[in-house]
Amino acid sequence: MPDRPTILIEGEEFPGWERLEVHHALEAAAGLLTFSGPDPEGWPEGGAQRVEVLLGEDRVFRGWIDQVDFGVDGTRSFSVRCRSLTADLIDSHMDFGDPLVPAEMFDQDVFTIAARCAAPFGVPVTHQLGTLRTQLRLSRFAVQPGETGFDAIERACRRTGVILTADYDGRLLLTLPGQDPNRSVLSTITGVTNSQLSVNHRERFGRYVVQGQGVGTDEEPGEVAFALTGVAVDLGVRVSRKSVQMVEGVASFSDCERRAQWEASLRLARSRRLQASVIGWRGHIRDQLWRPNAVLPVELPDLRVSEEMLLESVQLSFGSAGPIAQLGLVPPDSYSLQAQIAKSEAESELVANLEEAEVPE
Fold first, then answer.
1. Burial tier of 148 (Cβ tally within 10 Å: 0-12, 13-18, 19+)
2. 179 and which of 128, 144, 171, 241 could share a cystine (Cβ 3.0–4.6 Å)?
3. Are 69 and 76 in contact (CB under 8 A)?
């Protein structure tokens, strides 16, 4: 029998479960855990409790119990639903009466903004931005009334092209595409039991229009600076399908153009998705856990797939059939342009700061 995962509730092992599922996705700010079994004796009492799932020495989930259901249908049973430690950040609103809440920040990198917005909720924040972190800056960022902590951080990440997710330790993770080191090959030889390729054009448009508002300058005063529009075209879709969106906050012409190009490329790439079921929770290279954000070689000739794909979602389950991983993959281009936007934003912000520094007082 393969290694059975261990569930810890407030640090104590809970053995009375029969089936569990852990779900993580690249664009989900909280991982999900469900587990169930017969009505257990000695269920720990109390309010929301901390829960962890371990496979050997590797943690695959850490968070809070959200909901417990007990039922009787011939036999007694229970089911438990949990979310990552980031749940409080997603649910709770920023309180301007709290001295930890930063109402306004100037010239800060996106990781610092995220860490300060998460601090009032006690949510740990980490990143995989490398040396690019110090360049991904916002000249001004203000928390808006009525925002949750997640809303504020997600807005900062969207403006800098950074992906916001949760890692297996329950922390909020700021990352860029393809940062997980797992490069295990996906094929029938390496454990793929079934797979499905889906091509869906429903979310694509022939024309993407992005509008925004800018700030007047000596060169572009008044109305000229405020009327900003960026346009991108997808030639594979009929022109009658149009998408119109607004850029948040103060924008530039290049902001609108990049956002339009991003929307077009993103939706084209995401129209093609692969689902694959694999035996086991680990890849065959160095026994690494399957995690979102890995770029994997895929060899599935029956589906005519022979290419690298980005692992976007992972569902790890354990039951009577043992450990199974359900993997969701998309073309790497689904997120690569987001990284290009981040780099472009950093370069333009850096140039603006240098030019400002050269202006004499």
1. middle
2. 128
3. no
Domain membership of residue 351 (yes or no) is no
Query: Is 108:142 a contact under the CB 8 Å cutoff?
Result: no
**Amino acid identity for residue 344 in this structure:** S
How close are the terminal C-alpha atoms of the chain, in Å? Answer: 73
Are residues 69 and 109 located together in one domain of the fold?
A: no
Same domain, 112 and 223: no
pLDDT tens, position by position, 146-191: 899 999 999 998 888 889 999 999 999 999 888 888 888 888 888 8
Q: How far apart are CA 138 and CA 156, in angstroms?
A: 8
Task: Give the model confidence (pLDDT) of 217-263 as tens digits.
Answer: 555 555 445 568 899 999 889 989 999 998 766 777 877 887 888 78
191 and 301 in a single domain? The answer is yes
d(C-alpha 226, C-alpha 216), whole Å = 7
User: How many structural domains compose the chain?
Assistant: 4
CA–CA distance, 92 with 27 (Å, rounded to integer): 19
Give, in order, the Cα–Cα distances in Å from 335 to each of 94, 177, 179, 264, 312: 29, 6, 12, 12, 10
Beta carbons of 294 and 313 less than 8 angstroms apart: no
3-class DSSP state of 136:
coil
Q: Give the domain extent around 234.
A: 207-269
- Whether residues 226 and 291 share a domain: the answer is no
Query: With contact defined as beta carbons under 8 Å apart, do 315 and 325 qualify?
Result: yes
42 HSE (CA, 13 A, CB side): 7
* CA-wise closest residue to 300 among 283, 278, 315, 321: 278
Concatenate the DSSP letters of all residues of 35-89 into one string. EEEE--TTPPPSSS-EEEEEETTEEEEEEEEEEEEEEEESEEEEEEEEEETTHHH
pTM for this model (two decimals)? 0.83
